[in-house]
User: Which sequence fits this backbone?
């Protein structure tokens, strides 16, 4: 019983800590979430003197015709990743349970 209370207390403290950090970081309003590609490209352009727009990739990127298709593809990708992770963790827990029951 005491072990459960201790775990609940740790969980509540962790969640509150994440909420406080999230609010503290976003309270200023000056932070923009830039991807590493954008930040890296800007830094390379700054160091080399070549504009960012002059870069053309070897393999052109396919741009979905609408935002709905893009979000659907992302959701499918996420679901496939979740299924794979579920199988892996299920296998590990199954192996652990099988070895402990022997």
Assistant:
């Amino acid at each position: 019983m005491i072990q459960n209370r201790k775990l609940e207390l740790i969980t509540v403290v962790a969640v509150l800590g994440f909420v406080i950090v999230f609010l503290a970081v976003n309270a200023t309003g000056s932070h923009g979430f830039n991807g590493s590609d954008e930040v890296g490209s800007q830094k390379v352009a700054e160091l080399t003197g070549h504009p960012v727009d002059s870069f053309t990739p070897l393999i052109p990127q396919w741009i979905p015709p609408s935002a709905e298709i893009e979000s659907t593809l992302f959701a499918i990708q996420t679901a496939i990743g979740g299924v794979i992770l579920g199988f892996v963790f299920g296998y590990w827990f199954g192996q652990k349970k099988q070895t402990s029951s022997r």
